[in-house]
Each structure stands twice: as structure tokens, then as C-alpha cells.
Design a protein that fits this description.
heterotrimer; A alpha/beta (469); B mainly alpha (303); C mainly alpha (285); B: 303 residues; mainly alpha; two-stranded antiparallel sheet; 2 strands; C: mainly alpha
């Protein structure tokens, strides 16, 4: 018995049977797979893409299921896999959840075909009938509209501030209290930015963590300054003012011997190590980023604070918007009434709002909840600062943004332009925003034309713009 | 019991049946339907509209397609021209008489191909990373130590962005790591066909090493060489996973965008299978041109 | 050929070959170190030891935490099983089909033989990605999206394999053996499985390994066809581990090691046949 097995495995005599070996493997593994228990039956299926989200809804869903005697299956699916499943479900009818969440950067990809064929429920009437429309922070709705229809419920507001390393600032007796504009910000930080005091061959701190490769950050800077990537007709407007000026400034932070910016990746082990080391003083921080820091960088507890973003000009907007989640219900669902009721409880009631704030740092878009005490508690991680109060202060001025199937393409063009501009600036030794602005404008115009030609060839989009009010 | 005569007449058809039926269904039919698909604008497989040659017209003017094609051709050219001579050199060295540990060396050279492009992409993403990556930390520590010893005040910038500034060289390097040993194995086998007595005779006649290599070894391994070049071109032209994983997408300023990646983005992220098919046809035509060129080239040399 | 009579040049060759081998092996070492180090610790401290422990290495930073985490994570073990099934089923069936067809094309007479062979030759230059989009719509029409049948079936018509097996048959299955078997009254299938197949063994080994490796490391097809995480094979599963909230390279490198180990083992087992088979097709081609 043992001899033939050994023979098979170790080719003792050169008479091994490779095909047999692999064939046996196929049969065994296929056998195990086919014994896999069939999926449990459920009455309602809910998919979310973040563990934090799953955690904050779990109780609500269990209570709801008990109350209505339903089996509800809550599943966390990775964002890419979720998009893949939703796409394939909407396109080709493979099973999809009855309630699922989507993320801002990728959700627009679904909004490519004619709206009536998208396979998503429109919420417009439901929202106005239930009176929810007035309770939702207005800038948060637009991101999920397509062809004049509200295809998603907003999960969040995502106002942006800056997380700053207060310990480093204190060490150098620098205060950012009087900073109002980006100009003030960099002037104040200039004495410690890009200085190698410990003489280890590299600068101890840069002023800010930003790089043109991180087009999401470029986008939020443009939105802060009042710019947008698409106009009211859904056509790209990459080169419209103030985008060239903003991009020129942002790239100028990244060039010269005394550059202010450094590229630190988010969500990676190595990026986190650099954030703990304090390679940059300031980091863009939408509300949810505070929870990421608390969870992934416990070492920074008590060393950081959140401040409003410096404005582009005195009196200007002190925040922006980054990321976002929506909830959608496919037209092909098993029970619309339950899906819609559960969706409201998950998104618009106080219990999940509190858990979402505590575990994911996400502020609810329902303005009436903003006075809840849990939003205003001092936070140990941020030196006892009431960061919730700060984000609530910023929330009403968050810039509005529209959904577009071409958002990923626009972001990719924005990144290309940023990277090219940085190369030009480096080659030609240009460090002032004034020199860079005309080049930025030219590059953005070329990118805009290209993106426009991509839109031009989508025959379904023409129908959409015609239908749009 | 079927008579032997009858069964021997049917047997050939039964033998080719599984292959031919799958071939017809999953290769021939999609090939024809892709021609039709390439003349449609689509949003997923269920929504489509006939646009005739619009996809191809758009393709010719599509700057991103040309960027993708340029990147792919640069990668292919660099891979073939660096990898294959290197593989041949390694095979020659390994084939020399009296090499100790030949089996082990062959295994080590060959093993990177077993790792797969996705995993190689992940590994090298880590290796090329700024500040904390293997290469940058190594160069920084090295130059820092050197400057401490010599007093020269120039240190390697640990933030040097390989995957922004040298995207293609980095990809070529990883491909070199993965496939040189694989191609070497082909050459190694081909070298077994070289007539040793002929080499010895030439040596006795006073032919130099270079001349023996040129006139005896090269002709003997040419068929394998042609085969390996063709395989490398076909493989390199279809580059996708490596940059997709290593750069988390097309990379900064689309510097790692390849034709197949562009096809994937259109077809399976944006849902326009029609335009994706048009891109596929463009790639097919270019690859057929390569194959034809190579055939002409090798035919001429053989004549 | 490079002269090797002189000891100096032999020494030089050895230095060259072994330093090349070291360079090629280095990323593997890095991978192993990254997989073994505990989360949060620097891998370079282990690669370039300057610490206090034995050999300067801080041994407390090394362990099997990442491997434990891998096997504890949801869907990871099933991804491994999925990979085994996908790769071995593809390799077995594709090899049998290709061997039968290649043999028939080389040694049997039947109507349409020339046509099939031309089709195979033509298919050699069709780039796979061209068929991605139409294949997707076809699988949609057949209702095979998100299923293993949809993933495996399209891979069972390997034109390249048929070509290789035809070449291998011509060079290693003499017509006389077939003829004499026929005279002895053997059926065609019996001749193929009992006589030709053993003679083709090196090619079978090589092709089994090539297709196994191809399926094992395939990322694009599963990514397109499968939509359920529980069905993902390893490569696809690991690529999507680089999540929105944090990329754990230690875990990923551990997963990579787990993925490489089986193919390494199979390669070890089949090495001899593999190399002779791989090259049989090329040399005679």
C-alpha cells in the first residue's frame, strides 16, 4: 500500500504517474468542495464592504429580524469583490443582495447605461414622502444622483480636517492657532519643515503628507477651492478655474530643496510606521480617518489633534469632502418593504449612528442627530479634543459633488496631470505656483478634451442628458 | 461488441471530439462574436447598440490606447532583447563541463517562474517601496555609511520613487527575474543537440571559441531560439497582472498601463465590452504582424 | 562553447553562476523574512541584523503569527482548496484532451484532420485577451458565470498543447509500434492509452505542470468570471486582501509562501520529465 504511494510521490524509479497524481488531487478536492454545505436560506441579504459598518449595523439587523421573524444574512465583502458581484448581478442576473453598500469612487461605474436599465431602486419619492429629505445634510445627497434620480441613500458627510502632530509642534513651540490660509500654514511650519536636525541624512519632518499621485487628495483640494470635476450637465470640467491654480500650488509643495510635502501611503504597514515616526506634521483627515488612526496607530495616542483645513483665501472654506458610502436596493429584490424599512433603521436611526461614530468615526448625514451627546465627548486619542463638535461645525459647508460614471477616469486624468506637472517642475526647476499655473492649465485642458471624447462616444449617456431635468 | 474495423474508423473522431467541441464553443464562436461585439457600444452583456466602426475610429484617436501600446511594446522589446541573450549565456555557462551543483543551480534559476505574476507583483511592490522598501533602505544605508567614511556629503534619497520614475525598468527587471531561468531551460535542452565531436574537431582545427559558438552552436540551437523568442513576445504583449498588482492599477500617469489592462478596464470595470473587443482586435492584429515578421525573418536567415 | 579547461575560467564561471543564483534567490529570502516577522516590526532589522540576539537577530520578532492569521481568516483555507481543485482539474482534463487530439492528428487518418490542424495552428496566434469580452457574454448566455464550470471549461481546448503533443507523438511514438499493435488486434483507444501514452510521458508531465501552474497563478479569468469571495482561488483572493483598510504585507507574504509551496513540490517531483518534455516540443518544433 505504502510503496505505490511513495512511488507516485517521489519518482523512485522514474515511473511516476504525474497525471494520475494531479488527477487524484482533482477528484479529492472536487469531492471536498461538493460536500460543502449549501448556503443557508435567508429572507433578506445585506452586503457591506467595511467591517466597521458591519459592526455598527449588526444589532439593528438582529432586532429587526427578530421583530419580523425573518432570517437576515449580513455579509462583509471586500470592496472590489463587492463591486464585481454587484456589476455582474446588475449586468447578468447573478444573485445580488437585497440591500448593499457602495463606495463613492467606484459606485459611479454602475451609472453608465440608461437609468431605467441600471436595476437600482430610485429613492426620490420615498425620501420626500417620509420627510427624510429635509433631515439630510443637503451636500450629501448629490453624490448619489444619476439621470435626475436618487439611486443611493447617503451614509455620511465626510468633512475633511487635518490631523496634526501636536507633540512635534509643541516640542518646537509652534502654534497653528492663528493659521487661516494655506499660505499661513506653510509660513508657520517653514522653520521645522525639511530640516535635518538629527543629521541622519534625511529631513526630520515635512509639513504635509501629500503627493500628486494621490489624486483623491488633489481632488479634495480642488473641491475645497470651489472647483468640480464635472459641470451641471455631467460634462467634464477638469480645467475650469480654480483647478489649475490649486494644482499648481499643490505641486509647488512637492518641489525644491525645501519642499513641504512627502508621499506617505495610507493604510499600509510602512505608511503607518512613517506616521508614527512623524515624517509629516499634517495629514488630510476626513472624519473616518480618525478611526483608522486610532485603530492602526495606537502609538500616536495623545500626540495628535484635528484642525480645520487652512483655506485658499481669507474667509474661504475650511473643509472639503473625501470618500463616501451609499446604500442601494436593487429593483430585483425579494422584499422591497423590508429592505426599505431596514435601510432606514440602519442609516437614519440613533443607535447605528452612535455605533458608526464610535467604531468608524463617521458622522451621520441626518442633521437632527448632530446634537446627540455622543458626538461631543472629549477624545483621549486626540488630547481630549471634542473632534465630533469640530466635524459637525465643518459639515454644513462641505462642498457638494455629483456622481459620474466617469469619476474614476477623471481621477486618473487628474493624477496623470499632477505627476506630469511635477516632472516638468522638477526638470525645469520651477518652484513658484505662478510659473506652474499656465502649464497646469494647458495639461488640464488636454486631459479634459480626452475625457470629453470618452463621454462623447457613450450612446447611452446622450439619452441620459436629454432626460435630465 | 463493436468490431475492430468499425471502432478504428470511429476512434479518431472520438479522440478529437472533446477538444474540438470545446474549441468550437469557447474559441471559434467567441472569436466570431468578438468581431460583432467590437462594432457595438455596450453597458454590460445585456445592453448594447450597433455603432459599426465607431469603436475603431475612437481607438485610433485614443491617446490612452497609444500610451498602453507604447508601454507594452517597450516592455516586450526590452524583455526580449535583455532576457534571451542572458538566458542563453546562463545556459552556456551552466552547460560547461565540470560545473559543481548544476542541478541546484538549475532549480534556483528556474524557481522564480513558479511564483506567479500576482505574487511576484506583491513581493516587488514591497521591495520597490519608498523609504521602507528593500532597495531604498539598502541604498540609503550604503551611501550613508560611505559618506560617513569618505566625508562626501551625498546620500541616496530614501524617498526615491522607483515606481513613479522608473516604472518600465522596474517591470522589465521583475520579468527578467521571473523568466530568464525559464528560457534558460529551453536553451539548456537545445545545447544537448550540439554535436560535441564537431566542436572538438573544430577546436583541433584551430577554430576559436567565438567562431565555434557562431558556426556550430548557434545553428544548432536556432529552432529553439526562434521558439523562445516567439513565446516571449506573445507572453510580453499580454502583460497585465504584474503592473496591475505592483502599481495598484495603471500606475502614476498611466506609466504602467498595458494594452490588456486597458482592455480589462473598459470591458470589466466600465462594462463596455464592445470597445474592449476592439482593443482586443487591435492587439491580435499587432501580434499577428509580429508573428509574420518573425517568420519572414527566420525564413530568410535559414535560406 | 566556452572553454573550461583552465582552472581560472572554471573558477570564474562558478563565481558568476553562484552570484547569479544568490541574486535570484534573494527576493525569496526577503519573502520568507517578511512572512515570518511579526506585524509592525521592521523586516530590515532581520535582514541586516544589528540587534542583540543570536547572530544579531531579534528572534522575538520572528514567528508563525502570519501563517496562523492566514488559516484563521475567513475564506482563506477554502481559497487554497479552490486553487487545488481549479488547477488540478484543469491540468488533468486539458492534458488528456490535448494528448488524445495531438496523437490523433499525428498518427491517425480521418476526414478533417488537415482542417483541425490548421485551426490549431491559427489558434496559436490568437491572443487570449481578445476572447475575454465575448467569452464573458457567452458564459452569461450559458448561465455559467460565477461557476467553476465557467472557469474551467474554456481552458480545456489548449491549442498549444495539441501542437506540443503532435510534435511529441511524431518524435517518440513510431508508426511501426502502432501498426504491429493493430495487427495484434488492439483497438485504437487501447493503443493510445497502453502504448502511446507511456511513450509520451515526458510531454504529459511537462504539460500537466504547465497547465497546473497556469491555472494556479491565473488571476484574470477568476477575477472576471467569479463574483463570490468564497469561490476565489488563492491568487485572486490574495490580490483583494490588499483592502481598503490596511495592507498587511506579512499576511500577504505568508499567503504567497503557502501558494508557492505546492507548485515547488510538484516541480520537484516532476523535474526530470518536465525538462525533457518541455524541450521535446521546442527542439523538434
Amino acid at each position: 500500500m505504502i510503496r505505490p504511494v511513495l512511488e507516485l510521490m517521489f519518482d523512485l524509479t522514474g515511473r511516476s504517474k504525474p497525471l494520475l497524481l494531479i488527477g487524484v488531487l482533482a477528484v479529492i478536492s472536487g469531492g471536498i468542495l461538493s460536500f460543502d454545505p449549501p448556503q443557508e436560506h435567508s429572507d433578506l441579504e445585506v452586503w457591506v464592504f467595511a467591517e466597521e459598518h458591519a459592526r455598527s449595523y449588526r444589532d439593528t439587523i438582529i432586532t429587526y429580524a427578530d421583530r419580523h421573524d425573518l432570517r437576515i444574512n449580513l455579509l462583509r465583502v471586500d470592496i472590489q469583490a463587492l463591486m464585481q458581484r454587484v456589476r455582474s448581478g446588475l449586468y447578468s442576473g447573478t444573485p445580488v443582495a437585497d440591500v448593499f453598500e457602495l463606495e463613492y469612487a467606484t459606485a459611479g461605474q454602475l451609472f453608465r447605461g440608461p437609468p431605467e436599465n441600471l436595476g437600482l431602486v430610485a429613492f426620490d419619492e420615498l425620501l420626500s414622502e417620509s420627510g427624510l429629505l429635509e433631515q439630510i445634510n443637503p451636500p450629501s445627497l448629490a453624490a448619489w444622483q444619476h439621470g435626475g434620480k436618487q439611486l443611493g441613500l447617503p451614509h455620511d458627510v465626510h468633512p475633511v480636517g487635518l490631523i496634526v502632530r501636536q507633540d512635534i509642534l509643541d516640542h518646537h513651540s509652534i502654534s497653528l492657532d492663528d493659521v487661516e490660509t494655506w499660505e499661513d500654514f506653510f509660513r508657520t511650519l517653514a522653520p521645522i519643515a525639511n530640516v535635518d536636525a538629527d543629521a541622519d541624512g534625511r529631513p526630520d519632518h515635512y509639513a504635509i503628507s501629500y503627493w500628486p499621485t494621490q489624486s483623491g487628495y488633489t481632488e479634495l483640494l480642488i473641491r475645497q477651492a470651489g472647483g468640480r470635476l464635472f459641470d451641471e450637465n455631467g460634462r467634464p470640467s477638469l480645467s475650469a478655474d480654480p483647478a489649475p491654480k490649486v494644482l499648481a500650488h499643490a505641486v509647488s509643495w512637492c518641489v525644491g530643496n525645501q519642499r513641504f510635502a512627502t508621499e506617505i501611503p495610507d493604510f499600509t504597514d510602512t505608511g503607518n510606521r512613517r506616521k508614527v515616526r512623524g515624517d509629516a506634521i499634517a495629514y488630510f483627515a476626513p472624519d473616518w480617518m480618525t478611526a483608522v488612526w486610532r485603530r492602526e496607530m495606537p502609538e500616536n495616542s495623545g500626540k495628535v489633534r484635528v484642525i480645520p483645513m487652512p483655506a485658499w483665501e481669507p474667509g474661504g472654506r475650511r473643509t472639503s469632502v473625501y470618500g463616501g458610502t451609499m446604500l442601494a436596493i436593487p429593483s430585483d429584490n425579494r422584499s422591497f418593504d423590508h429592505a426599505w424599512e431596514l435601510a432606514q433603521e440602519m442609516y437614519f436611526s440613533v443607535g447605528p449612528a452612535e455605533r458608526t461614530w464610535k467604531s468608524a468615526g463617521v458622522l451621520s448625514p441626518i442633521t437632527s442627530l448632530w446634537s446627540e451627546p455622543f458626538y461631543h465627548e472629549p477624545d483621549e486619542y486626540f488630547q481630549g479634543q471634542q473632534i465630533g463638535s469640530l466635524y459637525i461645525e465643518l459639515a454644513p459647508t462641505v462642498p457638494p459633488r455629483a456622481a459620474s460614471p466617469y469619476l474614476p477616469a477623471a481621477q486618473s486624468f487628474l493624477q496623470s496631470v499632477g505627476v506630469r506637472l511635477l516632472d516638468i517642475a522638477r526638470e525645469q526647476n520651477m518652484t513658484s505656483p505662478k510659473e506652474l499655473e499656465p502649464i497646469a492649465r494647458e495639461l488640464l485642458q488636454a486631459a479634459n478634451e480626452q475625457l470629453d471624447s470618452v463621454l462623447e462616444r457613450n450612446p447611452f449617456l446622450a439619452e441620459i442628458t436629454e432626460q435630465a431635468p | 461488441m463493436i468490431s475492430t474495423r468499425l471502432s478504428s474508423r470511429i476512434a479518431p473522431y472520438l479522440m478529437v471530439l472533446p477538444f474540438v467541441s470545446i474549441f468550437l464553443l469557447f474559441i471559434v464562436y467567441p472569436l466570431f462574436s468578438s468581431a460583432s461585439l467590437s462594432m457595438h457600444a455596450t453597458a454590460g452583456p445585456s445592453v448594447s447598440e450597433f455603432v459599426f466602426l465607431d469603436n475603431f475610429r475612437f481607438l485610433l484617436a485614443d491617446e490612452l490606447f497609444w500610451i498602453a501600446l507604447r508601454n507594452t511594446v517597450i516592455f516586450t522589446t526590452a524583455s526580449v532583447f535583455i532576457q534571451i541573450p542572458l538566458a542563453l549565456g546562463l545556459a552556456l555557462a551552466l552547460n560547461s563541463r565540470g560545473i559543481v551543483g548544476r542541478g541546484l543551480l538549475r532549480l534556483v534559476f528556474f524557481s522564480p517562474v513558479l511564483i506567479g505574476l500576482v505574487f511576484a507583483g506583491l513581493l516587488f511592490q514591497l521591495i520597490f517601496e519608498k523609504e521602507t522598501g528593500l532597495i531604498n533602505s539598502l541604498l540609503f544605508q550604503l551611501t550613508d555609511t560611505l559618506s560617513g567614511l569618505t566625508g562626501i556629503d551625498s546620500v541616496f534619497d530614501p524617498e526615491f520613487p522607483w515606481l513613479t520614475r522608473f516604472v518600465m525598468p522596474a517591470l522589465v527587471l521583475v520579468a527578467l527575474w521571473m523568466y530568464t531561468g525559464f528560457n534558460m531551460v529551453y536553451f539548456l535542452a537545445a545545447l544537448q543537440n550540439v554535436d560535441r565531436t564537431l566542436l572538438e574537431a573544430a577546436s583541433i582545427d584551430g577554430a576559436g571559441a567565438w567562431s565555434r559558438f557562431l558556426h556550430i552552436t548557434i545553428p544548432a540551437i536556432r529552432p529553439v531560439g526562434t521558439f523562445v523568442v516567439l513565446l516571449s513576445i506573445i507572453g510580453s504583449m499580454q502583460l497585465f497582472e504584474l503592473p496591475w498588482i505592483m502599481l495598484n492599477g495603471p500606475g502614476p500617469d498611466n506609466r504602467g498601463l498595458t494594452v490588456v489592462m486597458y482592455l480589462y478596464q473598459w470591458g470589466f470595470e466600465s462594462g463596455d465590452l464592445g470597445y474592449a473587443s476592439a482593443i482586443g482586435w487591435a492587439l491580435a492584429i499587432i501580434m499577428m504582424a509580429f508573428a509574420l515578421l518573425q517568420r519572414v525573418f527566420s525564413g530568410e536567415r535559414a535560406a | 562553447m566556452i572553454p573550461t579547461q583552465h582552472n581560472t575560467s572554471r573558477l570564474f564561471l562558478h563565481v558568476l553562476l553562484y552570484s547569479m543564483a544568490a541574486i535570484i534567490a534573494f527576493p525569496f529570502l526577503y519573502m520568507i523574512v517578511s512572512a515570518l516577522r511579526s506585524p509592525g516590526s521592521s523586516d530590515l532589522g532581520i535582514m541586516f541584523p544589528r540587534g542583540d540576539g543570536l547572530l544579531g537577530i531579534d528572534w522575538s520578532n520572528l514567528g508563525f503569527d502570519n501563517f496562523r492569521a492566514f488559516f484563521a481568516s475567513r475564506n482563506a483555507p477554502s481559497a487554497l482548496l479552490n486553487s487545488v481543485f481549479y488547477a488540478s482539474a484543469s491540468a488533468t482534463l486539458a492534458s488528456i484532451f490535448a494528448a488524445m487530439t495531438g496523437y490523433a492528428l499525428a498518427r491517425l487518418r480521418f476526414v478533417g484532420r488537415g482542417f483541425v490542424f490548421s485551426a490549431v495552428l491559427a489558434a496559436l496566434i490568437i491572443p487570449g485577451p481578445l476572447l475575454l469580452a465575448p467569452l464573458y457574454t457567452l458564459l452569461y448566455d450559458l448561465g455559467l458565470l460565477n461557476s467553476y464550470a465557467g472557469l474551467i471549461l474554456p481552458g480545456l481546448a489548449p491549442a498549444f498543447g495539441v501542437y506540443l503533443f503532435r510534435q511529441a507523438t511524431i518524435s517518440s511514438v513510431p508508426m511501426e509500434i502502432i501498426e504491429s499493435a493493430r495487427i495484434d488486434g488492439c483497438g485504437e483507444f487501447r493503443i493510445f492509452f497502453a502504448i502511446a501514452f507511456p511513450l509520451l510521458k515526458p510531454m504529459v508531465s511537462a504539460f500537466v505542470l504547465i497547465t497546473f501552474l497556469g491555472a494556479w497563478n491565473n488571476f484574470l479569468m477568476p477575477q472576471i468570471i467569479l463574483s463570490e469571495e468564497a469561490k476565489f482561488p488563492l491568487a485572486t483572493y490574495i490580490a483583494q486582501l490588499r483592502g481598503l483598510y490596511g495592507t498587511d504585507y506579512g499576511l500577504i507574504m505568508a499567503a504567497t509562501l503557502i501558494s508557492v509551496a505546492p507548485v515547488m513540490l510538484i516541480f520537484f517531483l516532476l523535474q526530470r520529465d518536465f525538462i525533457s518534455g518541455l524541450t521535446a516540443g521546442a527542439v523538434k518544433g
